[in-house]
Amino acid sequence: MINVNRLIRTYGDFTAIDDVSFEIAQGEIVGLLGHNGAGKTTIMKMLTGFLEPTSGSITIDGLDIREQREAIQRKIGYLPENCPVYPEMTVIDYLNYAAALHGVPEAERLERVREAITKTELTEKATQFINTLSRGYRQRVGVAQSLLHHPDILILDEPTNGLDPSQVQHMRNLIKEAAQHATVILSTHILQEVQAVCDRVIIVRAGQKVLDSRMEDLRSASRLLVTVQAEPGKVDAALKEVAEIQSVKQLSDDSNRQSYALTFRDQTGPQQCAPVVASALLEQGCALYAMQPEQRTLESIFLETAAR
Ligand code: ATP
To answer: Which of 65, 93, 251, 254 sits in a 20 to 30 Å window from 46, CA-based?
Structure first.
């Protein structure tokens, strides 16, 4: 369990991370989504113990990052932004060296390196110098490095940045496969990335958390959009009859037709309540022109949060 509480990070007078809190349970795949400069890398550097928070706390499996940084780092596999690897080493030598740095016992290193090379499909490139690899393959070396010590938590900063579409697909598969054994936090400014691999999204904007939601909750419609033609007061009277309705927001009134967005109480959603709402409106003599559950996409939500 990762627990981030009231995290603040300043650079001089500038507040890069402004009072961010969240919890991540074991096995989740969480996308940190935000524009360039939103604060994703800063959060990741603090989670991995490479940057001190100005204030606030981070605990991982009950360990405090300020007091037990090394113990926490042993649990984490980290792909930093821009994937720093040693270009003058071969893939296999670099991974062997990285395994030693991760504290993998010498007797196990070869097997771990072989396993990481297989998972990241680097076998053909294993003896090649890293500076002769394409960006996508170099990125795979970075991911292979992060897997060597079988971490419980994988933190990947922009793992698909600069990759071509087939490499992106390969990286997504790799992340999903890694997520079977580890909690994964990845950062990206690409919505499709989150949609493709994550089961939860945290949107960061200007250093603040503006949304934290499970993907399935975002996908399920939460509002019912209704368009009617009715005399004043009749819509109000009809909707008051429906106990499940929590709120009514008028969207437009062009003198001819009126549109409303309805939200519902806890367990009831627009799908279940639509027939009851329709009967109530018809009983009051309202002409019903349209009724549909609102389809929200991550894109529309991202734009909504940007407009706030
Ligand atoms: P990107 O998607 O471009 O990598 P990001 O969401 O990862 O962006 P950060 O790199 O965390 O954003 O940066 C957050 C803010 O903090 C930015 O405004 C950035 O310019 C600023 N910042 C980051 N590192 C430093 C630093 N060492 N000194 C001063 N400002 C910094």
So the answer is: 93
